[in-house]
Amino acid sequence: MSTPSSRPGAARTDGPPARPTDAPSVLVGVLVPLTRPGWTEAGRHLLAGLELGVREVNDAGGIDGRPLELVVRDTAADPQRAAAAVDELADLGVVALAGEYHSVVARAAAARADALGLPFLCSSAVLDALTEQPTEWVARLAPAQSHGWRIYAEFLLRAGHRRIAVATQPSVYWASGARILRDHLAPHGGTVTELDMRTLTPAAVCDELVDNRATALLLLVGHPEPAVPIVESVRRDQRLAEVLIGAPAGQPEFAEWATALGDDGAGVPFLRYLPERLGPLGARVATALRERLAGAPSFVAFEGYDTIAVLAEALRSPGVDQARTAGFWPDVAVEGSRGHIRFSRVPGISVWQWAWTPVHVVDRDPAQPDRFRTLHTG
Known about the structure:
Largest sheet: 7 strands, mixed
Strand order of the largest sheet: 2-1-3-4-5-14-13
Order of helices and strands: EHEHEHEEHEHEHEHEHEHHHEEEEEE
Strand content: 15-25%
Number of strands: 16
Mean pLDDT: 93
Structural class: alpha/beta
Helix content: 25-40%
Low-confidence stretches: 1-18
Distance between the termini: 29 Å
């Protein structure tokens, strides 16, 4: 069992940390969406958290005196590009993979990492089935979609919403989300009507909401298109003044959402993977991330930081060895920026899972859109 660290670069208890030397770097491959059609703001936040974690590790002596170094590849939300990047990074000698925001991309990367026997710590993607079969090589920090989206369904029921419409696009991720919502709402008399955005305009979505007497519209679509035009259309339709707009996937978390929609973007509940109040470590990380990003850090940035906290401990404990790093997942015990991190086997989840990071349903306060309100706690 490893000894928990208070931060990624924390000194070990068996002596002062070694200083990084001229020894070869310990390479960690990173997958992030940095260009369109990937969600570039999410990628930028994820990378900022990863880089902050690495800086602290190296300031505290690196990995047994060797500097930790990220080898970054842009996935651009493309599963095939991500799989090819895994092969390239393996050839470059990375000891582990980290990152990725988009679930369908992370699934492709996880499958390739599993086939190669390369440890992969998935930072942000939530799709339950990251791999087809149980694997020892992949672990995940973000909560599984079935866990988080059930919490969102509970929020809807408690708020009195049982006639739900979902604006959706073809995707394994969106289809999985709609199924989770439907399965959880149905026993309570709830219904979920899917609106196919391949055939509907934002104005037609408004008509469908009226015809179906929906009290809530959930955005299971990409950002900014077609999410932003849908929100604008619904907000301007007087027939829909009482309809709740929701975005369980977290689109309103990012400044890009607020910039595009202004006041129209407030009051849209989404899932956020942060504690309601950060502890001392989280508060320090938040300050450092704010400086690095020149703005408020999203929960995705904290996921990046915690990824390095876990990997640094894994690499220090058994030494820099891929096979033994993969075997470390069940023994990890690390104090992250959002709580104490341990991995376990969760029924129905094929990878090692942190069960669970804090989950809240929040929105941007209509009275102060740069402030978040907690509406429901998972």
